[in-house]
Batch of 4 targets.
Target 1
Amino acid sequence: MSDLNDVLKKIEATEANLAKLDRIWREIADMLPSVNIGLLGGTIAGVEDEPRYQELERNFEHIRKAMPKLDDFEISNCIVPCESILQNMIDLVDLDEPFASLDYQYSLTRQGEVLSKYRFRLNVKRRDLAREFVGILSQEITAILDTLKSEVNGWSEDRKMPQKKWESIDQKAKEIEALLGGHLKKLPEWGDFRRHVHFGKGCDFHDIFERDWPAIQEKMTEILYGEEDPIPIGVKDIGSLIASKPTGRIVTALKWSALNDEKFERLIYNVIKDTPGYENLQWLMHTNAPDRGRDLSVSRIQQDGLGGSRCLRILVQCKRVKSSLRTDDVVQLQTRMRLWEPPRIDELIIATTGRFTQDAVQWVEKHNRSDTALFINMWPENHIESLLAQRPELIAEFGLR
């Protein structure tokens, strides 16, 4: 197995060399003549500064040879030699074909496309590397913050945070920075988070816990699990599958064992995200955070043709279990909701891969008939399966079939 730090160093060196190639290519591209031949009107031009062009061409090739392949894709040298450009322009005038001019213009600038394709593949590989490790580091930071929440309760805003735990947060944040690299540009809240970690006072902890970290958690999920990542299919032609006249019965039960706690939370996140009427969805903390009963927060807008609209604050607790949730489990989750008020929580959704015992169902029904403000909504596995039946793309994405 490769050492993670060594792999990261090689990726960073590749990114540095790619940046050099981009810089050299931009200067070369600025020196290229504009092809305007034939029916489009005739102008003939070569490279004005041939010595500089040739120097850049040699520098480009020198760096290009040091670039590793990415799944057999490599950066080819598509730069048109300086001495060929003027002669090719003259030949185009003799040919007098406008479409040939367009083709030649593309050949002159093709190198930029090759670099762009390589950078795309490199970004995908970095994200693949970061996905597992950033998730673990984020979970560890969340656990430390939750421990500190009860430990520093009542401290003054100017009091410094416990040094050992605060240094641990700082170190894990630095590791996340190293893993994400350029993807940090998509996290504008990261700068505020790092500034508050640097000062490390009571007021900084409050800002991190209430604002910085929840916002980072939500956007980090989108960075690490981009919708542009393909799902492996394993077939080149769907038509051939249909033509084979498949037989057998449809398996309707979903493979909940394919999900860990984090993936189950992400599944529910996607289900809610695509549902009309739900707004401000936030993935507020990671799995198994101690003494917390909230995984997702969302607002539901209810429209009333006579009374206008109403915004409900909803918390979603995801419980990946094999057994059924008992009354004690539900009561514990309902009690924990008080930790998150104010503002008032209007509804608690308990989403689980298991079921609810009959006693738990009766307790929830009795609770919902009372005058309490909190409504409890139960999402057992069969309800989630019904929701996913309308979203087959999620079944495929999470490998549940």
Target 2
Amino acid sequence: MANFITHLESTTDGSRFDPRTLHTLHGGRPLLVRYDLDRLKKSIRRASIGQRPADMWRYRELLPVVNFMTRVSIAERLSPLARATNLGAHLGIRHLYVKDESKLPTGSFKSRGMAVAITMARQFGIKRVALPTAGNAGMALAAYARQARIGSYIFMPLDGPAESIEFAIKNGAHVFLVDGLISDCGQIAEAGEERMRWFNMATLREPYRLEGKKTMGFELAEQLGWRLPDVIVYPTGGGTGLIGMWKAFEELAALGWIDAEHRPRMVAVQSDGCCPLVRAFESGAEECSPFENATTIAAGLCVPYTIGDRLVLKAIRESNGTAVTVEEQRISDWMRLGSEMEEIDWGPESATCIGAAAALRESGWIGPDESVVLFNCGGNRSSDSEKRPHLPVLSASEIDWDIIESGVMTAPAGT
């Protein structure tokens, strides 16, 4: 397979880096993978994509994997794009769709990012990886790291979903609970880079999870006949998915595969219990300030600060989109509404998109005849504390490295 990567690019000053070398951040901000799109355009036709197997790897020329035959894969099929007729009628949106990422191998869109990131980790010879997570990313990391025979260390807040913890443990991960937020988990993952010699796979700290996530944009375009919807409504925590899709649309436009003048208005949705990106967008800022006392049942949205803030805000503004907060106390109601009307297992993060679409339709920001896609990024995970395995609890302020170095794991409850 031909590889079309040219370089890695700094999002702070445009500096270029050799893609054959392992990199993390530059100036504390993410790197982006860049491709020779002119050469790629001459090498592949859009029509040939549909003749390939129906999985995310059909877009392989636009992915960073050098040796396609050694990719780490767990059957990442295309996620369904369903016409949401009943929910659309309820919201007053005639052309409403749901892209259901809960059908991916580990139950969420995180499968995409980890498939590519772990493939690249193996390519670079990495033996151990670490990750702060609210749940879904930990499940994906554990499954793909196991497939690649790479050791995985996962740090999750105390209220992390029991189902996610059990899944990660069953897949061989070393799982630790942290008394704090995901940002505290991130401090431990970062602190262990030198001592534990693991590679930190936290959101946007390496450039390859983003490349996997952008395949959502490729799929969406293909499923709609290489046309894009008027609006995409997306639950936004770290922001990798939204950034990735906007990057995908830029690449497709450069290839001439989509109408460069018609791209979706991107909507970032957050709970009012944690909405740093919305605050930054509304104030006109180019980056967000940490959100204090963050709390929400949508664990994936409980991200007080993200290093991808500039990229998220840039995508929203370039697309003439917006950022919306929804009421925390109504998330459960939207989960029930979505499940009853469309028989889809909505996670709390994604259910916020229903509330956002309702508010934007009511205000007239979304028109009744516009095409709108809501993303269900993952299903609902049990947070029943009684089913949560007994695990070591760490503090970010006083890290017990003896516990971590021992690689303590506990069998899931009930086994």
Target 3
Amino acid sequence: MASRTRKWLPIVAGIAILLVFVVIGLAAVSVAWFRQNLDVTHDTSRTEATQAFEDARRQYADQRPLVEFGDDRRPEFVKGIETRKNAGTVSSIHVLAWDADEDSLVSLSLPMWLLRLKRGPIMVGEYVSGFDDRGVRLTPEDLEKYGPGVVFEYESRSGDRVLLTTQ
């Protein structure tokens, strides 16, 4: 009986070591992927940030966003958005954000398959804390339905800006 236990011990130890290496490998791949798709630029002036936002919007200049923010800062789907033509398939979502306090410009690109892994809709608005459900709920299917374009552009009272587009 003791010899059977000794035979299984190296097998279990080998599997445990293999799992540790797999986890380390996945972590390394994840870090490399995010470094490739995330760009943070520090010491970005308001003028430079504004130019970056204009450049990002330029290809969608004749298109209204999918979501707009009213006077009360609440998001809502743009009226008549159903008529927006789907100009192609959506393969990724791009986030451009500027932090006015730290003068940092962040650009992030996420593939749609990654968004599909998220359970539940994406909440948009100042009310995403979970205590108030008056925000806009977007699913990857919503984004694909309306095709590439501006999802929303938002500027906070403090000057922070976010532009979300699909391509």
Target 4
Amino acid sequence: MTTNFIRRSLWIALLLSLLLPIHLRADGARLDGMPQGSGSYDDLVTLFEEFLGWRNTDTGYDADTILKRQAEMEKFQAQLADMAVVEWHLAQQVDYLAVRSRFDRYDFRLRVSRPWSRDPGFYADQMQRITFTRLPLDHDETAELRRRLVSIVELSELAQQNLTEVAADYADLAIHNLRNADGVGHGFPYRATPPRGVIGWYDDLLARAQQQQPELIDDIATTRQAVESFYNWLVDGRPAMTAAAGVGKEHFDWYLKHVKLMPYDTNQVVTLGLRELDRLWSTHALEQHRNRDLPPIELPTSADEYDERIGATDKKIRDFLVNEEIISIPDYIGELDTNVPWIVRPGGPNFWEQVQFRN
């Protein structure tokens, strides 16, 4: 019996052990042990497909809609609890556990994390991606963009109605992201100087519309004003936004066990994290000693030097992989990319730039 097989068997046994104790949903309802109901494995597959379709209709965040979705989620949970899991093959039981974790994660979101009422970033994130739209657009694409721009205006108004229990940390982060770039691309379109946050990207879209599709100027300007209105509302209301960002130890312990399927509680996770931090600092000290006779790595001083370093790193990686006969690299594989563009900041590079510019 191989070591890998032993490890895999132990892990599956660990997962299944989570089925045996009393299972509590986020609202405290009991699901005792491994279900011994009437549902088949095919019923589980069908239920999961129905759940995914239902979850993807998650577009409304007013109080009545949330209460309705909570009631619908309870029905999904009840059907899941009626599965004859105890009679299934091991692989099917593991699938049940994976589905249950998905249900529990969404249930936790509805009842505990509640981002639509606690986290302004929940709305700010939805406001940004539309600004990456490439112009000019054809007739149908223009109509769709206008529809989406109107939806952002409505989202701004909805956010100001729904955010009734805002966590202080979430408010600060949203305020920052609406007006500041963090220096990391996140897959955004490249700009030599990244736009200043979500509002800056609306300025970018507006500037492109002025050059490429002037008939969109008013639509974009109206939406930009709505986003800025949301920003101002957050800034003005920030003194009263004092809730805690965390969900509390009891809720997080539940989340670790039933959503992340981890056999650890919060205290044990902290212990593991501190142990890994100590290990990291030990490795760091050893690396410092090993390279003690080398000069420290300095930041590049220009975009050209940064590009040269990226190119040199790309070549070094390719040569290592090929020369060591690890993998071959076909000609169609593009050059190494980075999601941290070159930028000069008055206060110096931020954290991500400090890392990437040296890396």
